[in-house]
Amino acid sequence: MTESAPKKVDLKPFLNNLQLFEFSNEEQSKRVTNSMSKTEWMGLIDENRIPTDVLDQIVLNHLVFEGHSDVAKCFQEEAGLPGHPAIDAIDFRSTLRDHILKGEIGEAIELVKDEHPSFFDNDTKIPTQFRLKLQYVLEMIRTETDIDMIITYVHNELRPLVINEETGHIIQNELIGILESVLVLLTFKDFDDLPNEYKDYLTDDFKNDTGALVNADFLSHIGDMPPISQLSGSLQTLFYVEGCIRKSKSSIPSLNRNTLKMVFDE
Question: Which of 40, 132, 157, 187 has its CA 20 to 30 A from that of 227?
Answer without folding.
Answer: 157
